[in-house]
């Protein structure tokens, strides 16, 4: 599998395309809001002749879902989110104008995903792990063989997701990191919702919030 990262919107959110040699792809956390960002995403998809099979949200915070409506309309793919975070997504339409996103458009979720569920596309698969703490229904997508973990706002390079938003809880987040993420091999690559990539081993060793070594 290949992972292409885009950094979108004023929150500097990471949007990911994961695809393989079949050209089938999943689009994770589309944060593209303005036309320039939308065109950047379209250009890459068309240049590589990709077919977006699913649109996936790790969680429903505004910066990760600004492009949901656009992506679903443009690519004709269903939108999936964790079964415990649908309300988080629904609330975005209420507060989006307060953040200056007057043109935010809500869209219907097509499927609610559960812990340990597997998503198949092309010759590839991503498995779901439930990792609450930053958002009550936060999930992540991973493939152990490929060493890919699309982690959303759980674990960052040298930091962790904030826990002061509605439904957030510090102890819950640290427990998610220790019990879910740190079970992976040290060379598992973490593709976070903000900032650059890191590895599980690096965060076990040096992350001031959750290191265990």
TrEMBL record:
<dbReference type="Pfam" id="PF00753">
    <property type="entry name" value="Lactamase_B"/>
</dbReference>
<dbReference type="GO" id="GO:0046872">
    <property type="term" value="F:metal ion binding"/>
</dbReference>
<dbReference type="InterPro" id="IPR036866">
    <property type="entry name" value="RibonucZ/Hydroxyglut_hydro"/>
</dbReference>
<keyword id="KW-0479">Metal-binding</keyword>
<feature type="domain" description="Metallo-beta-lactamase">
    <location>
        <begin position="12"/>
        <end position="194"/>
    </location>
</feature>
<keyword id="KW-0862">Zinc</keyword>
<dbReference type="InterPro" id="IPR001279">
    <property type="entry name" value="Metallo-B-lactamas"/>
</dbReference>
<dbReference type="GO" id="GO:0016787">
    <property type="term" value="F:hydrolase activity"/>
</dbReference>
<protein>
    <submittedName>
        <fullName>MBL fold hydrolase</fullName>
    </submittedName>
</protein>
<keyword id="KW-0378">Hydrolase</keyword>
<dbReference type="InterPro" id="IPR051453">
    <property type="entry name" value="MBL_Glyoxalase_II"/>
</dbReference>
């Amino acid at each position: 599998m290949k992972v292409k990262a885009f950094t979108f919107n004023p929150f500097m959110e990471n949007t990911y395309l994961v695809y393989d040699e079949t050209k089938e792809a999943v689009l994770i956390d589309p944060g593209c809001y303005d036309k320039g960002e939308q065109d950047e995403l379209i250009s890459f998809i068309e240049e590589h002749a990709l077919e977006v099979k699913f649109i996936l949200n790790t969680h429903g915070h505004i910066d990760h879902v600004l492009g949901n409506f656009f992506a679903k309309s443009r690519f004709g793919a269903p939108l999936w989110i964790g079964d415990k975070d649908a309300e988080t997504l629904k609330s975005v339409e209420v507060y989006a104008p307060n953040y200056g996103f007057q043109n935010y458009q809500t869209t219907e979720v097509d499927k609610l995903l559960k812990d340990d569920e597997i998503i198949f596309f092309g010759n590839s698969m991503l498995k779901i792990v439930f990792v609450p703490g930053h958002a009550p229904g936060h999930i992540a997508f991973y493939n152990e063989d490929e060493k890919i973990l699309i982690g959303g706002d759980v674990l960052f390079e040298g930091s962790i997701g904030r826990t002061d938003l509605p439904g957030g809880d510090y102890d819950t987040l640290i427990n998610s990191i220790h019990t879910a993420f740190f079970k992976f091999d040290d060379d598992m690559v973490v593709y976070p919702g903000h900032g650059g990539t890191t590895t599980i081993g690096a965060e076990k060793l040096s992350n001031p919030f959750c290191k265990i070594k």
